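Appendix B, Record 12. Input sequence as logged:
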Amino acid sequence: MTTNSKGLAAALTVGVFFTGVAWSEWRTVFRQRTEIARLERQAAGIEREIRELHAQRTADLQAFQAARDQVAAAAAPSALESRVRSVFARVDSLKERMARSPGQRIPELQLLTADDWFDSAQQNSHLETDDDFRVALGGLRNKAMNHFLGQLQGALNSYLKSSQGQLPGDVSQLAPFFASPVDAAALQRYEMLKTGVAGNATHGAIGEKASAVVDPDFDEMIKIGTDGWQTEPAYDTKPLHDALNAFNTANPGQAEPTPDLLATYFKDPAQAARFLEREKANERERAP
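Logged structural output:
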């Protein structure tokens, strides 16, 4: 081999060596780049999955919140239900107060209906003080007496038919003329205001005994006749009428005075205080 041939062979050998090295490195770099591209694609897919999972999680939370709100709305009482529950709670309070206050009961109370108790609880929205309960229990007694008076008037008219218009001498004589058996204790609370010929005793034949009134400050007195009945306050109304007359005399043409102003025209301070107490209790009863 000549010198030139040897040099060419050496050069080819070196070239092949370097070409092999370059090819090997290039393949390594290519594989690395391919792996990097694959990992980048994989990372992009993972990021997309993460975003989708976040979006799904947000949607699930929103759906859960909506479902929970629906359940809470269904479980929570409506405004009407709350008012009804409040009324029934006051019914229980009234019955409990009546049960532990024997002096507040009258025989006619057995005639009260569930509607009577419910109506009373609606009308007396504030049951806090003793006077609040006195007003409410007085109203219940008046409702009970109204039930009884319808029966009493029926018995009176039946008696008058059988007696040719003669009134009984005693209320107890009406017992056989009730459509259903009557409690004798209820009859004992009433008295004849008139006897003999009924005549024009349309409203004043029978009346509640003054001694039978439970709470004169808040109860009503009943008078019954052949055509109906009438009620009037059980307390003495003369001091009130006198105070009104005194106010009108001192202030001709003026509008009706406020309770506080009218109280200054009472002659008896104790009666004025009781008048104001009744007015305040009635105001609480009327309050929403």
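The chain has eight helices and six strands.
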